[in-house]
Amino acid sequence: MDLSQLEVFLAVARERRFSRAAEKLYRTQSAISQSIRKLEEEIGEPLLDRSSRDGVLTDAGRVLHEYAERLLNLRADAQQALAELKHLHKGKLVISANEFTALYLLPVLAEFRRLHPMVKITVNRSLGSRIPTDVLRHNSEFGVLTYDPQDSQLRSTVVFHDELIFVVPPNHPLSKQPLVSIRQLGAESFVAHNVPSPYRNKVLQAFQRHKTPLHMDMELPTLQAIKRFVVAGNGVAFVPEMSVEEELARGELVRIPVRELSLHRELRLIQRRASGLSHAARAFLTVIENFARERGGRYCFRPGR
Questions:
Q1: How many other β-carbons are positioned within 10 Å of the β-carbon of residue 104?
Q2: DSSP state of 182
Q3: Which residues of 186-209 are buried (b: 16+ CB within 10 A; e: fewer)?
Q4: In terms of C-beta density within 10 A (0-12 exposed, 13-18 middle, 19 or more buried), how is residue 239 classed?
Q5: Which of 76, 109, 180, 284 is geometrically suited to a Cys-Cys bond with 184, CB 3.0 to 4.6 A?
Q6: What is the rounded CA–CA span in Å between residue 222 and residue 274?
Q7: How far, in Å, CA of 140 to CA of 97, rounded?
Q8: What is the pLDDT of residues 249-297, one digit of tens each?
């Protein structure tokens, strides 16, 4: 049996006449009769008492009537749920990010929530090196990275520009310097992130090129911990500029340019090439693009090939 047969059956049971059911469904009476006869053949039981002029249901007809109503109501519920999903009254969006790239998401997600408050958003924290795998395995629809994964199965869009900067507390001897060299940093005690990254390696390589020791006497698991430790006067650090904007504005940290280091970074939003995006994901891309157009500055929307 199929749902169209059940619709015909319910119409006949409701109208009590084949002719009236045909009028309601805009079909011929013979088509209605044929549909009921085929349904009875498939079930192996008569559904209507043909001896009655009022279309009385048989026992089998009464049982089927109950289930037919449930099935058609479920179809209506499914259609409604799909319509709500399409119009973003429901839905789910899952994004993978690390501690730093999640900072980029905060204002964008706030705007998305304002526009689409019924969509549930989950940001899964993951190591940057694992985020491409999260996306390829369908654990997330999007990932946010500070590097181009160079994977033909992924499409990446540059969405933000950031820079790795050198910061010290305001009472540090170097805090009044307009510019420092790497050699001046050889005696400093650095507070470092204990998660390897391409940019950490670039800093190490720069110190090695200039034959300057890099004393990483303290390694901490989060940027928040690093910031607090440096603010308290317990060392200096290289950190993403976006992660210390508030501390710089309040004067809790001081940024000092390093002559030999200019580490600009591009944040990328990655997605799978082979699979289509959900309605929520497409809406999220639109929000990001509009956000970049309106905000400008370090926000951008530059799709890759």
A1: 22
A2: G
A3: eebebbbbebebebbeebeebbee
A4: buried
A5: 180
A6: 34
A7: 10
A8: 999 999 999 999 988 989 999 999 987 888 889 899 999 999 999 999 9
Q: Tokens standing for 106? A: 């905060």
Amino acid at 88: L
User: What DSSP designation does 224 have?
Assistant: H
Using CA atoms, how far residue 225 sits from 145, 175, 222, 242, 244, in Å, is: 21, 21, 5, 15, 12
- Model pTM? 0.71
210/302 Cα distance (integer angstroms): 35
Question: What share of residues in the chain are helix, strand, coil (percent, to 5)?
Answer: 45, 20, 35
Q: Are the beta carbons of 113 and 139 closer than 8 angstroms?
A: no
Query: Which pLDDT does position 86 carry in this prediction?
Result: 75
Q: Identify how many contiguous H helices and E strands the chain contains and give both numbers.
A: 10, 10
Q: Please give the structure tokens belonging to residue 186.
A: 């050889």
Closest by alpha carbon to 244, among 234, 235, 254?
254
**178 in Cβ contact with 184 (< 8 Å):** no
CA torsion, ordered 133, 139, 145, 150, to nearest 10 deg? 40
Asked if 148 and 156 touch (Cβ cutoff 8 Å), the reply is yes
Residue type for position 22? A
In the chain, % of residues over pLDDT 70: 97
Q: Give, rounded to a whole angstrom, the gap between the first and last alpha carbons of the chain.
A: 49
